[in-house]
Design a protein that fits this description.
With 90 residues, this protein is an alpha+beta fold. 42% of the residues lie in helices and 30% in strands. It is built from three helices and five strands. It has a three-stranded antiparallel beta sheet.
């Protein structure tokens, strides 16, 4: 499912125009992104939890030369599915 498909589905289910549904979907995605940028956790009950995860610095290897390189630590987004979502998928 693409973002356009999601917008169409929201428009039909919520009886909205495509423009209003697109704005709603984008507002929700922006809110999740902004919360994660601030380091906050976003919990959508029945769906799951979006959080920021930290990757530790580590040593990697350049595949072309075989030389060791240092990979810096960084933050990445993470998602953990909620109980209701897991149960619905089974």
């Amino acid at each position: 499912m693409t973002k356009a498909d999601l917008v169409d589905l929201v428009a039909k289910k919520a009886s909205l125009t495509n423009k209003a549904a697109k704005e709603s979907v984008q507002a929700m995605l922006d809110a999740v992104r902004d919360a994660l940028k601030r380091g906050e956790k976003v919990v959508v009950t029945g769906f799951g939890t979006f959080s920021v995860r930290s990757r530790a610095a580590r040593t990697g290897r350049n595949p072309q030369t075989g030389a060791s390189i240092q990979i810096p630590s960084r933050k990445t987004p993470g998602f953990t599915a909620g109980k209701a979502l897991k149960k619905a998928i089974r």
